[in-house]
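Review form for a predicted model. The reviewer records the input and the model, then writes brief findings.
Reviewer: anonymous (R2)
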Amino acid sequence: MLNGLRIIEVEGLGPAPFAAMLLADLGADVITIHRKTGTPPPGMPDRSILDRGKRSIALDLKDLDDLKTAKQLIDTADALIEGFRPGVMEKLGLGPDECLRRNPKLVYGRMTGWGQNSPLALTAGHDLNYISLSGALWYASASDAVPQTPATLVGDIGGGAMYLVAGLLAGIINAQSTGEGTVVDAAIYDGSAHMMNLLMTMRQTGNLQEARGQSLLDGPHWSRTYTCSDGRYITVQCLEPKFYAEFLKIMGLSDDATFEPQYKPTLWPEQTRRLAQLFCKHPRDHWATLFQGSDACVAPVLSPDEALTHPMNDMRQTWRSVDGTLQAAAAPRFSNRRWTPQPSPARGEHGAEIKAELDRLRRSNPSSG
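Model under review:
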């Protein structure tokens, strides 16, 4: 869907390369400027899933010749992605003022935790810190447990990468019609707070309390994860009355007066205790089989490896093993395009190819570069 768009990514960690991967999945020509050291950042494999579908050139941005090559690449781009602390790209001579002067239509994407301008802009942080300060972590567990979210999903990916991609695509659409580029300031702090707006609508109706465990989605017995006899887990979230009725029917509780009131907070603790006792009598897969195909809104908690072999995945092919590496397929899907797994390049693999393209461009347009 994004064939014809070129994105330059300056190697970083977390949400920035994830955003670039998503754009590559959608068909953009993503060229990653990898570090010339030949080794990936700590904790990253040599061929990362996040680099799939991209092309790689290895440059030392402190070397004048390599810096010139980087600038020439950026001159050919629709957008750029960087994920450093504020000021780092400016020190390298690749700040937005310089890049937009050379390429006025460029959409310059900046991915940070605290934003380009804030009291914490130059302060280190990670996913959990950003979402704790933004308010997005507050409802992330039961009232008697420490708030905890799946690592990176709410902050780095949800509040960070996805908002960066949305900003880049909006900027590109605008640049195509106006000829004017822009700087996208994507902060995980901002994006994770923005995602809370769906919950904040519940505050307008009185269904969201500040106290954890007292609201419509984090307090009831019908919105919980329960432990089964084998130590694995089952999720229940039958919000609407008709789905709740289906849940009670399958559980054999339709005539139990304790469970008749669905939305009475004073009963939620006792109802939760009763359900916990029932679920711990059988293993997870017993419950998964019992509820399979129903509208009771019950599902087992699967690991990624289990999800790969689940019948749901047989048709969707969402989880795949590609060259021995488990990964999720591109999303969303399109009726007139089919995504196939793309390889991850070795660092610098396309350097000669990319430099040859720049040479051809310079010969055809001597005024460039």
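Findings: The two ends are 29 Å apart (CA to CA).
Further findings: Residues 153-178 form the longest helix (26 residues).
Recommendation: see findings above.
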